[in-house]
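Section 4.2 – Deliverable D4.2 (structural model, holo form)

The reporting period included a commitment to supply a predicted holo structure for the target in complex with magnesium ion. Inputs used:
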Amino acid sequence: MIPFLKPDIIYEKDDVTVITVQDLKSLNVNALILDLDNTIMAPKAAKLDPHIEEWLIEMKKHFKLIVLSNNRKKHYIDKVQKVLDFPILGSAEKPWPVGIKKAMEILNESHEKIAVIGDRPLTDIWLAHMYGFKSVLVRALTAHTEPRWKFYLRKVEWSFIRR
Ligand SMILES: [Mg+2]
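Output (structure tokens):
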């Protein structure tokens, strides 16, 4: 296990909607930095599944939300912004510091009061460790339908965080 890829909470077999308000309260956070692709939306979908939309509505009652995505396609990010009622920042280059400054300005919370939620150890979780955020790793939304090579790539990445 590589320490900087270890999340505070792991949901290996479930998507983001398994995370409860109580889980996040136990991490003592006030704000969430959400990954986009494969965490709250299937890649290229530009729309929310009803069960995810419901989860976001619930989370919004308790936490400040922002989406931080490495997706570089501005027209796609603009399209996604139209279906979200909280901010989204694209071209973030996680785990590097490019997008995080703006996200921190918007959230206006100290680092330890923020949790990153995402499906990738090497971007989302690493970012959280670099900035002292809490972190939750979830199963990718399309993990069950993706090609074999992607499945194995994910396995390798997840193998870094096994105890
Ligand atoms: Mg992702």
